[in-house]
Amino acid sequence: MSAEITKVGIISCSGEAIAEGTISRLATRRVLELLRPDVTVTLCLPLFLAGNDAERNFARTHPTITIDGCPKQCAKWGTEQHSGPVNAALVVSDILGTEGAACHRSARDASQVDKEAVWAVAESIAAEVNNVLAEATPVDAAEAGAGHCACSSPLPGGKLNIKGKSINIPGLPLILEQCAERGISSDGTALLDVVKIYHAVDPEDEAEYKIALMQAYQAFRSGLRPAK
Amino acid sequence: MRSERKENPVLVVPCSGMGKVHGLISREAAYLVTDELAPGKTDTLCLALLVMGDAEAVDAVRSHDCITIDGCAKSCAQKNVEMAGGRVAKALQVADAFRNYRGAKPGNATTLTDEGWAITRDIAQDVARESERLCASEEVAR
Question: Is the ipTM of this complex over 0.85?
Answer without folding.
Answer: yes
